[in-house]
Amino acid sequence: MDFLNAIGETLSGLGNKLIEILPKSPFYYFDANPEVKQVLRYLNWFIPIDTMLSITEGWLTAIALYYVYQAILRWAKIIE
Questions:
Q1: Sign, CA torsion 49/52/54/60
Q2: Per residue in 2-22, is it b (16+ CB within 10 Å) or e — as a string?
Q3: Are residues 40 and 32 in contact, defined by beta-carbon separation less than 8 angstroms?
Q4: For the chain, percent helix, then strand, then coil, each to nearest 5?
Q5: Neighbouring C-alpha atoms within 13 Å toward the C-beta of 28
Q6: pLDDT, position 60
C-alpha cells in the first residue's frame, strides 16, 4: 500500500508542477503594440473589451465543466 501511496504522491507533485507553469488566465498576458493599446484604451470607453473577455472566459469554463461532469455521470451510468 505504501508503494501505491508513493506513486500517487509523485503523480500529484508532477501535476502541481505542471499547473504552476500555466498562466493564471489566458488573457492576463495579452500584450500589444503601443498604437494598438492606445486604440483599445479609447475603444474600451464604448465597448468594454477587457470585461467582455473575462466574462466570456468564465462562461466557457462553466460550459466546459458542465460537459465534463455530464460525461463523467454518463460514464458512471448515473444519468442517461
A1: negative
A2: eeeeeeeeeeeeeeeeeeeee
A3: yes
A4: 75, 0, 25
A5: 5
A6: 94
